[in-house]
Amino acid sequence: MSEPNTATHTATTHPATSAAVRELSSWGGYLQPAAEQSDLIGATPADWARFARHWDDLTVDTYMRDGGVYRYRRYGHFRLDAAAGELTALPHGPYRQESSVNPLNGGIERHFDPLTDAFLADPLTRSVVLSLGEIFSGVEGATDWDVKLHPFRIVTSSAETGRPAPQGRHRDGSTFVTSLLVGRTNVSGGESSLYTPDGEQLFTTTLSEPGDQLLVDDRVVLHDVTPVTPVDASAPAHRDVLIVDFDLL
Questions:
Q1: Which of 86, 94, 191, 197 could be cross-linked to 81 through a Cys-Cys bond (beta carbons 3.0 to 4.6 Å apart)?
Q2: pLDDT tens figures, 126-146
Q3: Are 192 and 216 within 8 A, CB to CB?
Q4: Residue 221 · residue 177 · CB < 8 Å
């Protein structure tokens, strides 16, 4: 995954990139609708449908201290040179957040299964990360990034509520954090909100279409997502997202 992608590094900045840089610099958040995201990275409905199938290969998160078994995930760690368009996979290792950032599950090293080869080879994986790198480099004026990918599936049923943000209103402890909706199947809820540190709600939306993406300056605003419940309790229900953490190097 280290070969350059010159298509995303052209002399002309895409209007969606410019809008994201402007809004993130202004107040710390930006909603990238699916149509805008698809145009930016050249994704078709067939691409999103193929990408979504990787979420069927996630494995259960065994570190939930609330006792829940509603979260499935994998994890990957990368180095991004946004100027060169080079995304390099780093050796697989544990993921850690401190308890001060994640009071529910933080303070320990959590060992998650690595991203599958099929996920790593999917063109959307690379395209999404490189487009984010261009945006965040435009905000910060820096191009070297530590990137962490977290595909999540939150399942829900009549027996268990699915909690995308079980720790409540929070920061992730990164420079930027994004949430890309991959799919919603038979669920209600899952409303995303952004807040000032003083608790003022700045923005709220429900990511609903594959490709809808919320970009957040994690240093400036807090974020939260409401629980999800099944629409039809007799059928499978889940919400699939890709969370991407960007940290300055």
A1: 86
A2: 999 999 999 999 999 999 999
A3: no
A4: no
pLDDT digits (tens, 9 = 90+) for 22-57: 999 999 999 999 999 999 999 999 999 999 999 999
φ/ψ of residue 245, rounded to 5? -105, 130
The one-letter amino acid code at 67 reads G
- Is this model's pTM higher than 0.70 or not? yes
Residue 45: CA atoms inside 13 Å, Cβ hemisphere, count?
1
Tell which residue, 246, 207, 242, 245, has the closest CA to residue 115.
242
- Rounded to a whole number of angstroms, the CA Rg of the chain reads 17
One-letter-per-residue 3-state SS of 161-196: CECCCCCCCECCCCCEEEEEEEEEECEEECEEEEEC
CA distances to 32, 44, 56, 102, 234 from 36, in Å = 6, 12, 26, 32, 35
88-to-12, 123, 149 alpha-carbon distances in Å: 25, 14, 13
Phi, psi of 37 (to 5 degrees): -60, -45
Q: Are 92 and 82 in contact (CB under 8 A)?
A: no
Q: Please state, in angstroms and rounded to a whole number, the distance separating the CA atoms of residues 237 and 5.
A: 36
**CB distance 211 to 43 below 8 Å:** yes
